[in-house]
Design brief:
The protein has 71 residues and is mainly alpha-helical. Helix content is 63%, strand content 0%. The protein starts with 10 loop residues before the first helix and ends with a helix.
Amino acid sequence: EDTPKPVPADADHLLFGLPQEAGEDQVRQRYRELALAFHPDRNGGDQGLMQEINAAYQRLLDAGGRRGQGA
């Protein structure tokens, strides 16, 4: 039973510390900062948190793409 749990719409923005209206460039920049801080190959890195950051990044980019196409 490894079913992924649903993620509240604003949880990804909260994890990234960005407002809901943040643009793709802001998301990419914040992802780079978080990846540098928490990558498991770095001292003090956290593999579990990095996996959450990666998943949130994908969801944010996917949501941004859909938002741009729908408008």
